[in-house]
Design goal:
The protein is mostly helical. It is built from 16 helices and no strands. Helix 3 packs across helix 5 and helix 14 crosses helix 15. It is globular.
Length: 302
């Protein structure tokens, strides 16, 4: 077994949904995805790091542009690992550069005015992650449409789930201003966590958009070759996990100010199995029948 790298440590400690699904990959692909995940995690953390000033954040992101463009000698550790990944796999770095710029826009975030603005942002911070991740996992360029659609869907679920946290922790608002105006919901309503019928309808409206992109992603996935579908099993598991989170919010009438929705580890493992089995539908065992797993399920969310 190879020695754990800094990228491995970052990926393992993150305990994210994506990191969880990587156990399905062959060792080399898993190593590559850990390197790419570490890059995404660090770029995202730079923007949210509370002790950094905005100029320091911009400088740190500029450094990563230099690293993945192979314009500077990387520091030992993650920089070296990510630069090696880019060179070894001859990755198209355009999506990675776009991701950096998407994260940069959060340093001094401006609320999207329209759905088009929101999707432009989601493309940068989520779909571009999907495009590169698909390549790293071994899928062909034919998977691009799938990666883009799934990226939109996952990001919209994140935005819905994290409405309160984005507002209070970071002072950010991702729900489009025009949509809020349509349902007569104000920024003050979000700041004061005022749950109302209008708020419910607004969140349901955005959830319908997420559903559309989950459908688009599944349609694109079914058109892919067997090899591409096999390579994208972790991505399909992510789709199942996040769609379940969306369904939980829908069934709970979007009580996003009261709780953070997630999926327990048992269900994640089940969804990973479901993704590997393709379109075969099997009933999900009730956690009531698996009492010894209950403590490790719904209480732990990502």
């Amino acid at each position: 077994m190879s020695e754990a790298t800094e990228s491995d440590t970052i990926t393992r400690n993150a305990k994210s949904n994506l990191a969880f699904t990587l156990v399905d990959l062959p060792e080399e692909r898993r190593r590559h995805m850990a390197q790419f995940y570490a890059f995404c995690r660090i770029v995202d953390d730079i923007v949210d790091e509370p002790v950094m000033t905005n100029p320091e954040r911009h400088t740190a992101l500029d450094r990563w542009i230099q690293v993945i463009s192979c314009r500077v000698k990387p520091s030992p550790g993650v920089e070296q690992e990510v630069q090696s990944l880019v060179c070894e796999m001859q990755l198209d770095i355009a999506p990675m550069l776009t991701l950096i710029e998407g994260c940069r826009s959060d340093i001094e975030q401006v609320q999207p005015q329209t759905r088009e603005d929101l999707l432009a942002y989601a493309y940068k911070v989520a779909s571009c992650v999907g495009i590169t991740a698909a390549a790293v996992m071994g899928a062909s360029p034919a998977a691009r449409d799938y990666a883009i659609a799934l990226g939109y869907a996952l990001q919209l679920v994140n935005i819905l789930r994290d409405v309160a946290e984005d507002c209070h922790k970071y002072g950010r608002y991702y729900l489009p201003a025009k949509d809020m105006e349509l349902f007569e919901v104000s920024l003050e309503d979000i700041r004061e966590q005022r749950y109302s019928y209008r708020m419910h309808q607004l969140l349901a409206y955005e959830a319908a958009l997420a559903e559309k992109f989950f459908g688009d992603a599944e349609e694109a996935y079914q058109k892919l070759s067997v090899d591409d579908r096999n390579a994208l099993i972790p991505a399909q598991a992510m789709s199942l996990i996040y769609h379940t989170i969306l369904e939980k919010m829908q069934g709970d009438e979007y009580r996003v100010f009261e709780r953070r929705y997630g999926v327990g580890n048992f269900r994640k493992l089940w969804f990973l199995l479901r993704a590997r089995m393709g379109t075969v539908e099997l009933p999900l065992p009730s956690l009531a029948d698996w009492g010894f797993l209950k403590s490790n399920s719904e209480k732990k969310t990502d």
